[in-house]
Amino acid sequence: MLARLQAFFVFCVLLLAAAWWLGSGALGWEMPWRLLGLVLIAAPHAGVLAFEFVLLRRYGRPEPAPAPTLGETARAWWGEVRTGWAVFGWRQPFRSAAEPDHLDERSHRGRRGVVLVHGFVCNRGLWTPWLGAFRRAGVPFVAVNLEPVFGSIDDFAPVVDDAVRRLEQATGVPPLVVAHSMGGLATRAWLRAAQADRRIDGVVTIATPHQGTWLARFAVSRNGRQMRRDSRWLTALAAAEPAERRRRFTCYFGHCDNIVFPAACGTLPGADNRHLAGVAHVDMVGEPAVLAEVFRRLDLQAR
After folding, report:
1. C-beta neighbour count of 244 within 10 angstroms
2. Which residue among 4, 28, 33, 181 is the one 20 to 30 A from 226 at the CA level?
3. Across 44-56, average pLDDT
């Protein structure tokens, strides 16, 4: 469903861009103005992202990381603009099924696999480059789609459970869970519901609002409200977690995360928290250091 909605949005943007180009040409507009209008239409997210970075600079205390420079902030904004085109304009609407789940009981028996859990308003297409790398390295994997898109985070626990179960059955080995953004909270909700600590090798989260986010105060969906700082849902989740569980988490966070801020919100007390400098929210998925850490945990090298 989400892929179709995003594909429809992309087609609308393309039609609008074509109408602008043809209409402005017919009116005799000069080329620089025609190109400027085309860029503004083709990158509707650039202005929204810029506003998010303004809010980040105003309300996003960087601790425990150092404050980002203006140069780091600008580079993070541009990186997120480019990643937005790739993820929301191509991978998720048109390539979400390009890399199907990779499971083979004959060749994968005894091999540790990976469960990949995406975040808010995303689908498994977010992970497409990762899935190709895993397939080339012979790593079994399952990448989920979290639906209903705007439901409670607790509703995603059965989806995560099914993915872990499929890898358990195919490999006989507890998998590693890798999650981006809200996907990290869905993973924690599943661990709480299933008490499944022994069924996984560990969890790597990327830009997850473990302690909520300032930006969620504007959320209207149920899962968005659950990600507000000090929400009842987050408070109850934290209260139910044993310290041993958190020690199995590796959490990547950043001082240029335009969605999860202040920066400390991306950390999980008691976990191995690692800072990524000058990288925005979705763009963190493309950070080589993160994928390298996952392959290290699998005792492999990326190919």
Report:
1. 9
2. 4
3. 94
| Structural domain spans, the chain | 105-297
Average pLDDT over every residue of 246-273: 98
Measure the CA–CA gap between 88 and 124, rounded to whole angstroms.
12
* SS3 (DSSP) at 38: helix
DSSP-assigned letters across all residues of 278-295: T--TGGGGG-HHHHHHHH
- The pTM of the full predicted model, rounded to 2 decimals, is 0.94
Contact 211, 229 (CB under 8 A): yes
Model pLDDT, residue 300: 66
Tokens 């959490």 found at: 251
Indicate the pLDDT class of residue 301, thresholds 50, 70 and 90: low
The tens digit of pLDDT for each residue in 110-161 reads 999 999 999 999 999 999 999 999 999 999 999 999 999 999 999 999 999 9
Query: What distance in Å separates the CA atoms of residue 280 and residue 70, rounded to the nearest whole number?
Result: 13
Cα–Cα distance, 22 to 204 (Å, whole number): 48
* Pair 128, 99: CB distance under 8 Å: yes
Tokens encoding 147: 């639906």
Distance CA 76, CA 35 (A): 24
Fold designation for 105-297 = Rossmann fold (3.40.50)
Say how far apart CA 206 and CA 225 lie, in whole Å: 20
Task: Return d(Cα 60, Cα 94) in angstroms, integer.
Answer: 34
Three-class SS of 223-247: HHHHCECCCHHHHHHHHCCCHHHHC
Exposed e or buried b for every residue in 46-70, given b needs 16+ CB within 10 A?
beebeebbeebbeebebeebeebee
Strands (E), the chain: 114-117, 141-143, 176-180, 202-206, 249-253, 272-275
